[in-house]
Amino acid sequence: TIFYRLLQDEARENVWSRTNSYSDVASGVWYNSAVSTLTNAGILTGYEDGTFRPDAPISRAAFAVLLHRCQFAAPVGQYGEEFVFADVPAGYWAETYIYSTKILGWLQGGADGLFHPERQITRAEAVTAINRMLGRDESVTELLSVENPFSDLAESHWAYGNVLEATGVLK
Question: How is residue 50 annotated by DSSP?
Answer without folding.
Answer: S
